[in-house]
Amino acid sequence: MTTLDLDYVRAQFPAFADADVARWAHLENAGGSYAAGQVVDLLTDLFSTAKVQPEWDFGPSKKASAAMARARTAMAATFNADADEIHFGPSTSQNTYVLAQAMRPMWAEGDEIVVTEQDHEANSGAWRRLAATGITVREWHVDPVSGLLDPADLDGLVGERTRLVTMTHASNVAATINPVRRAADLVHAVGGHIVVDGVSYAPHGGIDVAALDCDVYLYSAYKTYGPHVGMMYTRRALLEALTHQGHFFNESHLDTRVTPAGPDHAIIGASAGIVDYYDALHAHHFGDEPDPVARIASVSSLFAAHESALMAPLVDLLLDRDGVYLVGAPSADATVRAPTIAFHSDGRSSASIYDALIAAEVSCGHGHFYAHRLVSALGLDPDDGVVRVSMVHYNTHAEVARALDVLDSLL
Ligand SMILES: Cc1ncc(COP(=O)(O)O)c(C=O)c1O
């Protein structure tokens, strides 16, 4: 069985060649990953030589247009979608905000939407605010101990007037992979739509919007080894049905429907470097494969095996200690949860555990991580919140061991 060549992986990231970066065990990836060299090179080139208005006929402008078109096609493969269903926005928070304005006119007063208590506020607040416009907002609560959503609870929340279910594929705190397809089937059966926040899922695996049957899927490329840009897939039929948010004279353009502002051209162009990175990994581990979606899927399976092994000792240690609570599924299987490990302890504040990890040069965080409602539902003070250590495929066992040493003596 092919396994991930970690030396090759880490050599793709300029950050790890920097002594000040490398001395930290970087376990704060759910907040933001380092960028692959392919992204850095593209960004440097586009900023240096093509940072002009695209779509004109002079050389640098043509280069900028070509880079953007290439990125749109390349990034569509990360969703298994068509290029014209992909939008680049400033961030996931801004994409959901625009989307909520664009979808609201599709609904009547008294229509219902379902939001979760588990989501990052980016995929929650913009929808909940629609209550002020006559929409009934129903909440899918979490279990107050595990932080998990019970899929069966959704059955009782979706009814004839449900127009939308908005949920996370994997929370940035509970990390457990939610059954999106089940929810999609439920809401589609009553003629509604589903919007899925994949920000915490996307760094770990290829996304298949066709298999999930979702109408909107969002993620943030700065967590998937790329630049700071929000990626959004919107099913073509929904894109046509929602209210155009761009300038009036662009109304016939699919690509401006949920993009009110001019985009950052170079950032968009550079995002193709994410897929160039995945392709380099694929070529190194597997050789040729003509289908870009299949290449990403193969690379994702290498990530999953490595990430399961990385999180296993951490999950074991946390489950083993009395008075210590792991949020989300008690599993180290990457098909069950992302390797984002959030926990809290009866005996110690999260701030004190965080301080000890930082003193040992383990990058991590504590608090609510904008999953304020989830952390509150766990009965915690959101400011102290949970401690979160989060891995991606480029992490090493030595980095995790450094965190383990601290936690073993502390908990
Ligand atoms: C699960 C999740 N959703 C949404 C967001 C918001 O993304 P952005 O910073 O692109 O608005 C984050 C950011 O941390 C996140 O972790």
What is the number of domains? 2
Instruction: Please state the overall shape, judged from the principal axes of the Cα atoms.
Output: globular
CATH-derived topology of the largest domain: Aspartate Aminotransferase, domain 2
Highest CATH level, the class of the largest domain: Alpha Beta
Architecture per CATH nomenclature, i.e. the level-2 architecture of the largest domain: 3-Layer(aba) Sandwich
What molecules are bound to this protein? Answer: pyridoxal-5'-phosphate
| Helical segment count | 15
- Using only CA atoms, what is the Rg? 21 Å
Topology summary:
Layout: H1 6-11, H2 19-22, E1 25-26, H3 37-49, H4 59-77, E2 86-89, H5 92-103, E3 112-116, H6 125-128, E4 136-140, H7 151-155, E5 162-168, H8 180-188, E6 193-197, H9 209-212, E7 216-220, E8 230-234, H10 236-241, H11 265-286, H12 292-320, E9 324-326, E10 340-345, H13 350-359, E11 362-363, E12 365-367, H14 372-377, E13 386-390, H15 397-410
Parallel strand pairs: 1-11, 3-4, 3-5, 5-6, 6-7
Antiparallel strand pairs: 2-8, 7-8, 9-10, 10-13, 12-13
Helix pairs in contact: 3-11, 4-11, 11-12, 12-15
The chain binds pyridoxal-5'-phosphate (PLP).
What labels would you give this structure?
15 helices, 411 residues, 7-stranded mixed β-sheet, alpha/beta, 13 strands, globular
